[in-house]
């Protein structure tokens, strides 16, 4: 905990994944909600097959999901989602003629059933 999963459409060529991972990890771990930076697991997922809406237009997306153990306040969740969105706003490619949608979602993980071990 936490887990950060960023999915993005394949038509966003040149997405700077390595830089984004570094900056996203820094943004999330600098929050007082994350007590140990080593707990954050981040990854990017390139989506080859996708659709954005129904119109035959040039569209793309970036969606980040930050999964946290339950119990955070709405204010803490809003702060974390804004930290992630700020990095993605800056680093997401914006190809000419392509509408890019950015979204960030905070998901509560059930504390009672979550298992994590360091081996």
TrEMBL record:
Coiled coil: none annotated. Keywords: Isomerase. CDD domains: CHMI. It holds the Pfam family CHMI. One of its GO terms (molecular function) is 5-carboxymethyl-2-hydroxymuconate delta-isomerase activity. It comes from the Bacteria. This is 5-carboxymethyl-2-hydroxymuconate isomerase. The lineage of its organism: Bacteria, Pseudomonadati, Pseudomonadota, Betaproteobacteria, Burkholderiales.
């Amino acid at each position: 905990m936490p887990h950060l999963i960023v999915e993005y459409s394949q038509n966003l060529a040149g997405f700077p994944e390595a830089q984004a991972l570094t900056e996203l990890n820094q943004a999330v771990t600098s929050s007082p909600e994350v007590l140990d930076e080593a707990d954050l697991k981040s990854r990017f997922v390139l989506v080859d097959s996708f659709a954005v809406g129904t119109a035959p237009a040039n569209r793309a997306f970036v969606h980040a999901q930050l999964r946290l153990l339950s119990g955070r306040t709405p204010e803490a969740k809003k702060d974390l989602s804004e930290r992630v969105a700020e990095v993605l706003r800056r680093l997401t490619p914006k190809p000419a003629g392509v509408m890019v949608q950015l979204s960030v979602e905070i998901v509560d993980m059930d504390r009672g059933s979550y298992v994590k071990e360091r081996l």
